[in-house]
């Protein structure tokens, strides 16, 4: 998370949106939240999005944060 947070800080501004096309376990999303950015992440592997859902759902997120997990029917 620390490396992702550093990269986010040097490549974006506070309140920007970070796009993570490979969500994995949600490390980039956590880094985005920690650095006051929004995050949109995508994950096609069920085991990873379940891990991200568990990891992100257990976080004490900012009041504005919304964590939503959807599964495409395709």
Quick overview:
The chain has 74 residues and is an alpha+beta fold. 41% of the residues lie in helices and 11% in strands. Helix 2 (27-34) links the parallel strand 1 (17-20) and strand 2.
Comma- or semicolon-separated keywords:
single chain, 74 residues, alpha+beta, two-stranded parallel sheet
How would you describe the oligomerization state of the chains in this entry? single chain
The domain count comes to 1
Q: How many E strands?
A: 2
- Which blocks of ≥5 consecutive residues have pLDDT under 50? none
Run of helices and strands? HEHEH
The DSSP helix count reads 3
Give structural notes.
This protein is of the alpha+beta class and 74 residues long. It has one domain. 41% of the residues lie in helices and 11% in strands. The chain contains three helices and two strands; from the N terminus they run αβαβα. A two-stranded parallel ribbon has the order 1-2. α2 links the parallel β1 and β2. The termini are far apart.
Record the SSE blueprint:
Blueprint: H1 2-11, E1 17-20, H2 27-34, E2 38-41, H3 46-57
Parallel strand pairs: 1-2
Helix pairs in contact: 1-2
